[in-house]
Amino acid sequence: MDTGMALDLGRQALMTALIIAMPMLCVGLVVGVLISIMQAVTQVQEMTLTFVPKIIAMILAAAFFMPWILNRMMNFAAEMFSPMVVP
To answer: Residue 42's CB: how many other CB atoms inside 10 A?
Structure first.
């Protein structure tokens, strides 16, 4: 394995990790913005009001997207453990 292959492997691993994490992060972002808007409108500044709904929403998103996440991870692992074709 040369340097180029190692860099490509690292890039592919990071991209897979970002793609796998994206659904939960997007759900957390949307819920956080909605709760911030609600807090600004009602002027309720409770600290736990921001964390608990985001955690619950992210857990539900993880459960909902779990089949897709596992599929992506298994495809990545199969690709990593397949025999490499070296020119």
So the answer is: 9
pLDDT tens-digit series, residues 37-59? 998 898 888 777 888 889 999 99
Alpha-helical runs (H) found in the chain:
3-42, 48-81
| 17-24 contacts, C-beta under 8 A, 24 or more apart | 19/72, 20/69, 20/72, 20/73, 23/61, 23/65, 23/68, 23/69, 24/58, 24/61, 24/62, 24/65
Question: How many residues are present in the chain?
Answer: 87
Tell me the C-alpha distance between 10 and 72, whole Å: 16
Q: Name which of 77, 62, 56, 59 is nearest 13 in CA terms.
A: 77
